[in-house]
Design a protein that fits this description.
The protein has 4 helices and no strands. It is mainly alpha-helical. It has a domain of about 40 residues.
Length: about 110
């Protein structure tokens, strides 16, 4: 039934996957908003849990790289962490990328 998803070299599959990913993302985001909009007041524990989500997602994305990669990535993440205290996210990303790209170009 889903053989068309695994057919290599078919450009139509890419657009179909992009479209379906967008639809699923829209449904999940709007569904969460619609559910939460029905409540006038949230319990303080629910608010605290919702406020913790961005930090949890960040840890989920960063921690595996920190544990599996070498010291160059650890240095880049440390520099990005320090830079994030003062700079905008685009500069933090740029600093981390420059450190990793420069370090790999230098042979580290």
């Amino acid at each position: 039934m889903f053989e068309f998803f695994v057919a290599p070299g078919n450009a139509g599959n890419v657009w179909l996957i992009i479209l379906l990913t967008g639809v699923v993302t829209y449904i999940t985001r709007s569904g969460g908003y619609l559910v939460l909009s029905r409540f006038k007041n949230l319990h303080p524990r629910a608010e605290a849990a919702l406020e913790a989500v961005p930090g949890a997602v960040l840890v989920t994305l960063v921690l595996p790289s920190l544990l599996e990669n070498g010291s160059l990535e650890v240095v880049a993440m440390g520099a990005a962490l320090v830079a994030s205290l003062r700079l905008s996210p685009i500069w933090v990303l740029a600093i981390g990328m420059v450190i990793v790209i420069g370090g790999r170009a230098a042979g580290f």
